[in-house]
Write a structure and sequence with these properties.
217 residues, elongated
Length: 217
């Protein structure tokens, strides 16, 4: 099976398995998604979703957060780790959105990457989830699963994985596929204890097939 055909089969199977997979970060507005994804660096989405309501209770609007002292933001987001750098990025990002973009989160990769603390992963998440544009979010689950399945071959750099996936995945499927990778990576293909026996991809996954052959021997 070619990588292209493998990708299409993975997409169809994960669609059936997780038809309603969506972003696991809670947000109501585009700027809030930017805040959440910055806080999610080296932190679980679950913890981020516990902290952001506290942040928005204190600073309910983009403008309020832009005006907030960095040290006050840091006090709230500290449980997410890297509190100082995350608080500085959030503050700078909100100020730039207010002052240069009229409070509107931009809808192009080029403009999003100008925002403090926003990389390709964050930008793709906004493009796909907020604006419905073709996007591939290469987070840790996506990178790990793509290597295990055989969609990429020992590639760990997010940008390189993204580049390879664009060759295989139809543009309209990329965003939803990455959300399904997250769900599958948490529920079945867990990093430390993948449950290959109940995986819907076990007969086409490079790692799953190899394990099955090893057991048969």
């Amino acid at each position: 099976m070619t990588k292209k055909k493998l990708a299409l089969e993975v997409i169809e199977r994960l669609k059936k398995e997780y038809p309603d997979a969506v972003c696991t970060l809670a947000y109501d507005k585009a700027w809030q998604l930017l805040v959440s994804v910055r806080l999610a660096a080296q932190c679980t989405d679950k913890r981020v979703d516990m902290i952001t309501p506290l942040l928005y209770e204190k600073y309910p609007t983009l403008e309020a957060l832009a005006d907030a002292p960095v040290e006050r933001i840091e006090e709230i987001v500290r449980p997410c780790g890297l509190g100082n750098s995350k608080a500085r990025d959030i503050s700078a990002c909100m100020k730039m959105l207010r002052d240069e973009y009229g409070g509107i989160v931009p809808d192009t990769m080029e403009e999003l990457l100008k925002l403090p603390g926003v990389g390709r992963k964050s930008a793709n998440l906004v493009l796909g989830d907020v604006y419905g544009k073709p996007a591939i979010v290469t987070d840790t689950h996506c990178i790990r699963l793509c290597n295990l399945i055989g969609l990429v071959d020992n590639i760990k750099e997010p940008a390189k994985v993204e580049k390879e996936l664009w060759k295989l995945v139809p543009p309209e499927e990329g965003n939803a596929l990455c959300h399904r990778f997250v769900t599958h990576g948490r529920e079945v293909c867990v990093a430390r204890r993948p449950d290959c026996d109940r995986c819907c991809l076990k007969d086409i996954c490079k790692t799953g097939v190899s394990k099955a052959k090893g057991i048969k021997k």
